[in-house]
Specification:
- It is an enzyme of class 2 (transferase).
- This protein is α/β, with parallel strands linked by helices and 687 residues long.
- 36% of the residues lie in helices and 23% in strands.
- Strands 14, 18, 19, 20, 21, 23, 24, 25 and 26 form a nine-stranded mixed beta sheet that branches. Strands 10, 11, 12, 13, 15, 16, 17 and 22 form an eight-stranded mixed beta sheet that branches.
- The chain starts with 13 loop residues before the first helix and ends with a helix.
Length: 687
């Protein structure tokens, strides 16, 4: 639970709110209704989230402290130094709780005849298997660092786990070493099945078992090994060298991230103090770093890839992505959307429509140009191959690719190089702005005129994440909307010109003003006795300006319902400030990623899907697009999907001042929104 300092003034601190979101992820690992192996994977997501939090958010606050600044105005009323302490304490408590959760999951696995064994629990046959596995699969990839007082410690890899080994030599001296647990190693080694029971050993324990093989050149009497992990500042510091291309600068900066300043040090709490002090001194860990005692194993993000062991009964049942009524993968999408807009809602609908649209554009002789924004691509991307195919067929293909997409920079650089070599025209965003909008427009020659077709989305054009992220994509041939979208691409090319848009809302120039105008209309309507409400669904809200505007609407009497997955700096339900605002968060099987804005507009709803959360970065420092919905059937569909999510009383949590993550439970029939949405779309097909 947050300290009172985190809710000073009118806001909950962003970092504390984020940690409470991650606590909701941990709740999924704790929930006995969640399939057992998926519970382990949620534990991995919890750990992975925490790694990124320290690389980015903790590192940012640490920079404020080191710059000698207080940071109260930026941090919602708490001093940066105090915030670092509070974050560390919350994380220590969460880590402790996560170890309890892991212990309970292991007990449940044992009831299913799945055993996680340590190096001390192996029988003779398993020991022989381990020795052979080590020699064949682990030893060739092993990186071992021998530590000494005279040799400088090499930079340890960011977020890699290491076994810190202490050997007591026969001479009485102590020799220290680090064994890197490389990402190329499988973290979980499946041992031969025995009497219908499955056995798994962590590669960490396999290495402990094989210490004699690793350090046989040392004459020691005893050896101990404990896990440590260091997390580094993940901010990209770009070189100012004008002779280097932007891509070169990003590539070099990504490499530099591996040697950034340490911000978190996690260690096995059973390590002896002498070894711990030696390591911390050697690594230059100081008081501004988050020093967290943990359990025997770190890098629990690896549980995201825990082996399924052929046990489909211990995993969520895979859903079969549904078709969109009226759209066919066997027929022309252009013809289908020529007279009617269609809404794709992944993962309930198949992402294949996006790829089909691009493949059709690549082959159609009448298509002249394709323009698309790319933020994160799948490892094997059919989107990228379709664009390359189009370029080979003589289409003018323009791709705005964001190579500063955090932690996906290297993958995007590689795809950018590949597309550039195939003749695709690349635009690397706009200086000082990340391009986060999700849109595509193609121009087709029809009857000696140019007609546009396209799509605008809330999510990345990524086949992998489309299976687990909920996102809306609007397919349209509305020439008014697509004319505006085309102007955004013109802005990419000539970004000293600021264009005017009649339909879409764009950041950084217009989003705040446009949203304020929509909110003001609701305030005017409620004061005039007319119907007024605001319904919002987004990932995060941290912009104090947007929070204050919603407070103003609440004080005027506008009823506001918000579904916020992650950070929520707004405090709902406070008399005289936000008593008309309710906020819930849904964390479940899929990652809630849709952004939807609904404004009552005197019972003639104005509805937008958007790439933008209500965070300062999205409103002021990124290129974002919010697209109006004009088709009445799609408007009704979006209202239905919001209402289904709002009625969730299984996986919805109530967000309020306490930040307790209490479930929204009531006596109404159970509604688990992600399952209910799938049923909703199935019924639409049947009808």
């Amino acid at each position: 639970m947050p300290n009172a300092k985190t809710v000073q003034n009118s806001y909950i601190n962003r970092e504390i709110s984020w940690l409470q979101f991650n606590a909701r992820v941990l709740q999924e690992a704790e929930d006995e209704e969640v399939p057992l192996i998926d519970r382990l994977r949620f534990l991995g997501i919890f750990s992975n989230n925490l790694d990124e939090f320290f690389k980015v958010r903790y590192a940012t606050v640490k920079r404020i402290v080191e710059a000698g600044k207080g940071g109260k105005s930026e941090l919602g009323g708490i001093k940066a130094a105090e915030l670092l302490e509070e974050i560390t304490q919350i994380v220590i408590n969460q880590q402790s709780h996560s170890l309890e959760v892991l212990s309970n999951i292991k007990k449940s696995l044992e009831k299913e005849h799945i055993f996680l064994v340590t190096e001390n629990q192996l029988d003779k046959n398993q020991q022989l298997f381990i020795k052979d596995y080590f020699l064949r699969n682990v030893s060739p990839a092993l990186v071992t660092i021998i530590l000494s007082d005279v040799v400088k410690l090499p930079n340890l890899k960011d977020s890699a786990a290491y076994l810190a080994v202490k050997m007591v030599l026969k001479s009485g001296e102590k020799q220290y070493a680090l064994v890197e647990i490389s990402k190329s190693m499988d973290r979980f080694v499946v041992l031969p099945e025995k009497n219908g029971k499955s056995y798994i050993i962590m590669v960490d324990d396999l290495l402990r078992f094989c210490l004699d093989d690793i350090f046989n050149i040392f004459d020691y009497t005893e050896a101990t090994a404990h896990m440590i992990k260091i997390t580094r500042d993940g901010e990209l510091d770009l070189d100012s060298d004008l002779s280097k291309s932007f891509m070169e600068k990003i590539s070099e900066s990504v490499k530099h991230r591996q040697v950034g300043e340490p911000v978190r040090f996690v260690y096995d709490k059973t390590i002896d103090p002498e070894t711990l002090n030696y390591l911390m001194t050697k690594m230059g860990i100081d008081s501004h770093d988050s020093i967290i005692p943990g359990g025997r194993y770190h890098n629990r993000r690896d549980y995201m890839s825990f082996p399924s062991l052929g046990r489909a009964d211990l995993l969520y049942k895979k859903i079969e992505a549904l078709p969109v009524k009226g759209l066919s993968l066997q027929e022309s999408i252009f013809k289908s959307i020529e007279n009617k807009d269609y809404l794709l809602h992944t993962p309930y609908h198949t992402f294949s429509y996006v790829v089909k649209f691009l493949r059709e554009a690549a082959l159609d002789p009448k298509v002249q140009t394709i323009k698309i924004t790319i933020y994160r691509l799948a490892q094997i991307s059919h989107v990228a191959s379709s664009l390359i195919n189009a370029a080979k067929n003589g289409k003018k293909v323009t791709v705005s690719i964001e190579i500063q997409a955090r932690f996906d920079e290297q993958a995007n650089i590689e795809y950018a190089e590949q597309m550039k070599n195939e003749g695709v025209n690349l635009i690397f965003g706009v200086q000082g702005l990340k391009v986060h909008s999700k849109m595509c427009v193609i121009e087709r020659e029809e009857n000696n005129k140019t007609k546009r077709y396209g799509f605008i989305s809330t999510g990345n054009f990524n086949e992998s994440t489309a299976k687990i992220y909920t996102d809306y994509t609007l397919f349209t041939a509305d020439q008014k909307i697509l004319k505006d979208v085309n102007k955004v691409f013109s802005f990419f090319e000539v970004n000293y010109r600021i264009y005017r848009y009649k339909h879409i809302i764009t950041s950084p120039h217009y989003t705040k003003k446009a949203l304020f105008k929509l909110i003001d209309q609701e305030i005017s309507n409620v004061k005039a006795g007319k119907p007024a409400y605001i319904r919002l669904k987004m990932n995060s809200i941290s912009s104090f300006k947007m929070v204050d505007k919603l407070y103003e609407a609440s004080r005027a009497g506008v009823k506001i319902q918000m579904i916020v997955r992650g950070i929520c700096c707004l405090i709902p339900g406070i008399k005289g400030m936000s008593e008309n605002i309710e906020v819930i968060s849904i964390v479940d099987k899929f990652l809630e990623h849709t952004r939807l804005y609904i404004f009552c507009n005197n019972n003639d709803p104005k509805i937008y899907i958007s790439s933008a959360d209500w965070m300062t970065r999205n409103i002021e420092n990124r290129v974002e697009v919010s697209c109006p919905i004009y088709d009445e059937s799609i408007k009704n569909e979006l209202i239905d999907t919001f209402n289904i999510c709002w009625s969730d009383n299984v996986k919805a949590r109530i967000l309020n001042n306490s930040q307790k993550n209490d479930y929204k439970r009531n006596n109404k029939p159970k509604v688990r929104s992600q399952f209910a949405l799938y049923d909703y779309y199935q019924k639409k097909l049947e009808n």
